[in-house]
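Field reference: sequence -> structure
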Amino acid sequence: MIVEKTVIGDENGEYIIREYGDFENVNPIEHIKNMCIGSSISFDKELLKIHGIKNPSEKILVKKAIKRCNKKIKLYKSIKFSNKLIKLLNANSKKEQIKQLKGLHLNTEQLYSFIFYAFENFGYKLSQYKAKHHHKGLDVSKLPRMIHIQDNNEVKSIGETELSKGQLRNVVENRKVTISKFLDNGDNWHCFFVTFNSLKGKEKHNNGQPHFHYISDKWNIERKEVVKQLTSEKYSLPSLPHIGFHRHNQKK
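Structure field:
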């Protein structure tokens, strides 16, 4: 796993961006915990630096981060998810899997709870691949260090760039990003993937509802071919079932 940390300062303070590279066949609980600990320590160091503390105790920071992240893992494990997902793991055919996915909805916490459950009870390890492609003709050397479209629809960028706000908006709106999570146990695998377009409601599913796509070994397509397709600029896969997605638990 590669971790890239970027600290960008402007008149309003600092933005800390941590990007994690692809990883394969990991214990998802330990992996998520380690990422959490790294982020927690980094955040606390930057926060203390703002308050003039430049050399904090590494031992105390690590202890605090472990405690915080153990609590987070425990919370994820406590989240309830649909029994359909367990039946999905036990299904022996594509037809049965599609049946279990019908009407299924997930949020972020439920997804991680399920991933942890699948590892602890079925032995499924986790892999993740992220593909990012810009529109043709873009000179990436002209991009600023960060582009963000705010809630008020204003385009904000940090770092030098020759591009106008309209061009920067075009970069964000036309960027193709796909994030794929694979659960692997021998020849059995399940893939849940999401595109930024599906999160933005740009795909024609249930009136633009954000959603995951699903495919497994039961589709009789080799795993390496699915990975190849999902990391390409435009993937080509058969019609796939959808899972409604919400980022977090919805308040009633």
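Note: The radius of gyration is 20 Å.
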